[in-house]
Design goal:
The complex is a heterodimer. Helix content of chain A is 6%, strand content 58%. Chain A has two domains: 30 residues; 399 residues, Beta Barrel (Porin). Chain A is mostly beta strands. Chain B is mainly alpha-helical. Chain B has two helices and no strands. The chains are: A mainly beta, B mainly alpha. Chains A and B meet through helix 1, helix 2, strand 1, strand 2 and strand 3 of A and helix 1 and helix 2 of B.
């Protein structure tokens, strides 16, 4: 005799179960089973409006339209259209000297206009570079069943900003095994990107500006020739190759888990043409002597292991959590944990709290500033806080509601806090708001 | 090491917080699931990427503010994010 705790069991739906079983036996992967549960739900249109706002820094407005269209013959077309408007200011890497001077460096922003680096140290805490930008992106993919157990996807993408263009192509195959309880996935993507600042790209670690105060002049290093500032070159181009191999496993009737290994290489111009790094004399209270453009290596190999599990604890509760370990040959190591808890508190209504935590070590060439007493410059150096030690904490809540049989509406808010170590930056606080609406037909 | 320990502890707590209602073996109990027992797994909320519009926005936010990225899939356009 088998004892069953009826409270913990989902209510059976014979019609759905039969339909799912039929679909599964005849054709399709796990995802297509979900889609075929109701024949008319393969096509959909999704709309999203997204707002991201950092305190005293960057704001982003994004509109995203996602279309899925069933072309028949087990072929699905997906199209994504994204439009971003970005305004605000971003830390440029300079340190705040003990006594901030008034020197203003002519600078080219992402919008292509020459603007000042905030005179007098901006907020008094951090040097910021103001910019505005717009980004339009399109992404098209075609998913097709290649055989009974094999599904292939090809994808093309294009995105354009005032100073950046990206072309991409990708292909993925998914192979179902073991009565479709196991799926092996392999994917390859190639991106060709071009960085196009309005006035060209500066030479890495070349001089942007020099401090002409008597104290700074006295401690100017021998290698620095302030009569020659950085030459400007053309666009910076890079190639990015990404690959992934993974296994997805159904563990039981309520749980599915996925393990991926990803490897990627970036080659070419990987420097940020807008970032600076200060040369300072630590014997002069950290006086800023020279300002250089940053320089990063022209190769980067990235690896990550990603593990995700989704489980239905009860008909009302679904959790999903993931962990990613990332490492690269720049010396960066990163741990990321993400957790969602969906609670369907009423029919067609749910709440979903979310937490995320990321901890990152710094790149080998990251430094807050270059010591003026060094005899020669390093091969690479950057003071971009994103390459430094940091921790990012996110906490959010989402409300979702089904509208009729075909509509889904959701809205969410997330608070993000980023803390830095090794740089004199105040914590970054950001708020994310997003509303989405999906209609299936 | 401290980082790993802290991360593992946090992850364990998060997982355990959702495991209390499950039978022994928890969510990781392994069964060979027959096709006609996959109704729950076929629900949209049980897919690996159940909320693609939100996932896409999050990926871009964290890509532009952290050094690590990717892991879930390949593809998608680039971003010269500041």
């Amino acid at each position: 005799m088998q004892l069953i705790d009826k409270k913990s069991q989902p209510k059976p739906n014979v019609r759905n179960a039969l339909m799912v079983a039929t679909c599964t036996v005849l054709s399709g992967s796990l995802s297509s089973v979900a889609a075929e549960e109701e024949e008319s739900t393969l096509s959909s249109i999704g709309l999203s409006t997204f707002y991201y706002s950092e305190e005293n820094r960057v704001s982003v407005n994004t509109t995203h339209v996602a279309i899925e269209n069933d072309l028949g013959d087990e072929t699905l077309l997906r199209a994504n259209f994204v439009y971003d408007t970005i305004t605000g200011a971003s830390p440029n890497g300079r340190i705040i000297p003990a006594q901030a001077g008034d020197s203003s460096i002519p600078f080219t922003s992402a919008s292509g206009f020459s603007v000042n680096v905030n005179s007098g140290g901006s907020t008094g805490q951090v040097w910021l570079t103001e910019f505005t930008d717009k980004r339009a992106a399109i992404d098209l993919s075609l998913e097709k069943s290649l055989s009974r157990m094999l599904t292939g996807t090809v994808e093309g993408s294009y995105s354009s900003e005032n100073d950046f263009i990206s072309y991409g192509a990708a292909g993925t195959v998914a192979w179902d095994l073991n009565q479709r309880n196991t799926t092996i996935t392999a994917g390859l993507a190639v991106l060709s990107e071009s960085v196009r600042p309005g006035t060209g790209t500066p030479k890495g670690l070349a001089i942007s500006n020099c401090n002409d105060t008597p104290a700074a002049l006295a401690s100017r290093p021998a290698w620095a020739n302030c009569n020659i500032t950085s030459p400007r070159f053309g666009n910076g181009s890079k190639r990015v190759i990404d690959s992934v191999i993974g296994v997805t496993q159904v563990l039981n009737e309520r749980t599915v888990t996925q393990l991926n290994y990803s490897y990627g290489v970036s080659l070419g111009y990987l420097t940020d043409p807008y970032k600076l790094i200060s040369v300072v004399d630590y014997e002069l209270d950290g006086e800023e002597v020279i300002i250089l453009y940053e320089k990063r290596p022209d190769e980067r190999a990235r690896n990550s292991i990603y593990w995700k599990t989704i489980s239905q604890l009860s008909p009302k509760k679904v959790i999903d959590f993931s962990y990613r370990y990332f490492w690269d040959d720049w010396g960066i190591r990163s741990h990321t944990i993400d957790y969602n808890y969906r609670y369907d508190y009423a029919p067609k209504n749910y709440l979903q709290p979310h937490v995320r935590y990321n901890l990152q070590s710094d790149a080998d060439f990251f430094q807050k500033a270059i010591d003026a007493s060094v005899n020669s410059l390093p091969e690479s150096a950057s003071a971009d806080y994103r390459l430094g030690k940091l921790a990012t904490y996110s906490i959010g809540i989402k409300y979702g509601k089904e509208l009729g049989d075909n509509g889904l509406f959701a809205m969410r808010a997330t608070y993000i806090l980023q803390r830095y170590r090794g740089v004199d930056l105040p914590d970054m606080r950001a708020l994310v708001y997003q509303g989405t609406f999906t209609f299936k037909f | 090491m401290r980082i790993l320990l802290r991360s593992s502890l946090l992850l364990s707590l998060l997982i355990l917080s959702g495991c209390s209602t499950l039978k022994p073996g928890g969510m990781f109990a392994f069964d060979k699931v027959k096709p006609w027992h996959k109704a729950l797994l076929a629900e949209e909320r049980m897919q690996l990427n159940p909320y693609p519009l939100e996932n896409s926005a999050d990926q871009k936010v964290y890509y532009s503010r952290e050094s690590a990225n990717g892991g879930q899939r390949v593809g998608g356009g680039g971003c010269g994010c500041n």
